[in-house]
Amino acid sequence: MVDAGDAVRWLQLAAPRGGPDDLPLLVNRVAPAVDATEIVIYLADYQQASLVPLLGAGPVRESLSIETTLAGRAFTGLDVQRATDNPDRIWVPLLVGCERMGVLEIVSPAAGDRALDGPARELATCVGQLVVNRRPYGDVVERLRRRLPMQVAAEILWGLLPPLTFATDDMVLTTILEPCYDVGGDVFDYALNGDVLSVGLFDTCGHGIKASTLASLAVSAYRNARRCGLDLVDTALSIDKWIRSEHPHLFATALLVELEPSTGRLRVINAGHPGALLLRDGKAIRELPGPTALPLGLGHLATRRPEVYEEELHPGDRILAYTDGITDARGLDGERFGLTRLVDFVDRALNDRLATPETMRRLVRAVVAYQEGQVDDDATALLLEWRPPVTPLPHLPGGPTRDG
Prior knowledge:
The chain is an alpha+beta fold. About 30% of the residues lie in helices and about 25% in strands. A hairpin with a 5-residue loop joins β1 (about 40-45) and β2. The two termini are about 25 Å apart.
């Protein structure tokens, strides 16, 4: 029986001595340990439209479409894929937690044996972690994932963003941002501290460097307030103060959200932003209340402090937040994408039981397609799912964990 343990241990010890350029060679060196002849790393491009091979001196590969290939099916469905007409290889999702990085192609005479799936997934988990850990030490991964030149404004924002997907046993949070290479002022951030998940979604006015500079200040002020232990209202006031101080003629709309994963209690400040949607049982049931505060930077015009809206979520509920670049996207005939089309799309995705990250990927691809690829404004969306476990906590050595 194939065992990936030795390969994983060797990679964990060997990889810290090299940069990201060395990963293809290192991973291929452990191929015999999992009864393989070749292992190729594919990474998703920024638009999540293609899987691009990270190649060294070994095998030659071309980029693969996420929409039309088995490799793409492994990426979107998170399942091991194999073809009956090409039985010597399998495609394995490349994950870090729930963040989809790409896929591994494993070429092996044992590819038809499903006993290989477990060791292949174990190896892919290790490789995904190595890609993330090695990426800051070189530019090869960033260059590979870019299919077009990235503007400086986008460089600033992508450098700020946390991973697009985060999950625990209690909840899943996933986000998407388009256009990837020339974004304006949309930015988001999140953090889990104890039993509070904090999420901020910001849409700053303007485009280009000025917008990304304002977005950078907004998210940095948000992190600072959160790390200082401020509550939701004082967090909004702090961000407002900094924007007004440094950019007195500009502002940002925002959603500031706190979720208690243990109870499902949701708290929201809407600072001039489109109202988030509450999704339940496969459909959008209502829009959360509109603005409870002025846009950040205009707080001096308000006569009272920001108000916090509270909602008690049901297990399985989802919150869909978005910027106006989604609903205001226009087709060639000038018609807006609109809220109705957004709700219909998400309802269909939920009823098709798509994974949360795949729902968001398809949503942003639909918005881009609706505009025939001519994206005029940032289209950013965020989907938060609360899914408390319904099974008892199993007792495992080292302490209890939830069965996800």
